[in-house]
Amino acid sequence: MSRSTADNCFVSLIQRDPESNKADHGTLAILGGSPGMVGAAVLSARCALYSGTGRVLIVRLSLKDGFVLDPIAPEIMVIDVHSQASRPITTWLMGPGLGTSDEAAQALRSLMSCNLPLVLDADALNLIAQDPSLARQCARRRAPTVITPHPGEAGRLLNSSAQQIQANRVATAVQLSQQLNAITVLKGHRTLIASADGTLHENMTGNAALACAGTGDVLAGLIGALIAQGCSPMQAACHGVRLHGEAAEHLTKRLGGMIGITAGELIPEIRTLLNQALPTWSAHPEN
Fold first, then answer.
1. What is the number of domains present in the chain?
2. pTM of the model
3. How many Cβ atoms from other residues are within 10 Å of residue 66's Cβ?
C-alpha cells in the first residue's frame, strides 16, 4: 500500500473538521457478547472507541443476564438485537463472543443481508463454516466484507487442519477471499491480507506478546473502527494489522518483555499510535 494511500486514510481520521460531531466519525455495531463471553465484545468495543469511532454499540442476543454497561467505558451502548434497526449504523462487526447457537446463526443470517461494510470474526466464521448457506450468502454480498480468521478458523472454513493452513498460508488467504468474496486477514506470524482479485499484503509488525486471549477481538474492533471512520476495507485491514502489531512492539519495549501483556493493554497503545500516525507514518517502511 502506497505512502499516499496511508496518509489519505489517516488524514481523514486525525485531521478532524472543527465543526464535526460524533455522527461524522461513524457508528460501529458489534454483534456478540453472549453470556460467558461478554469480554470479547467489550474488548472490540473499547478498541473501536479508543480508535476514534463516534459511536460504538454492543448488540447482544439477549440482555437477560443484566450486562448493559461497561464500567470502564460507559460511552459504549449495549442493546439487544431487536433494538438495532433504528440505529444509524455505518459498519458491522459480527462474531466476538457471539456463540454458535441457533439464535446466533439466525441473527447472523439476518444482519448479513444489510448493505453495510461487515467485519466477520470468531464465532461468525465458525457459524459460516458449519452452514454452507451462510457461506453462500456471504459470497453474494455486494457490500464489502472483511474476515479475520486465525489458522484454526481458516481450517474449519476450508475443511482443513490448522497445520495444513500454516503450510499454505498464501494460497489459503487468497482462496478464502475468492470463496467468500471478502478481504481476508489470515492472522499469525506475518499476518496476510488478501483480496479476491489476488492482491496480497504481508504484515511485518508484531511479536509473540499477541499470543494471548483477546488480541483478535482487539484487532477486529480496530479494523471495524477504521472502516466506520472512512477507510476503505483494504486500508483498514492493512493499517489495522500494522498498528496492532506496533502496539505489541511498543508495549514489549516499555515493559521489558513479552510475558504477561494482555489484550486490554494494547488498546490505549493503539490510540497513542493513531494520534502519532500522521506526522510519522511516512517514515515507516512499506509492508
1. 1
2. 0.93
3. 7
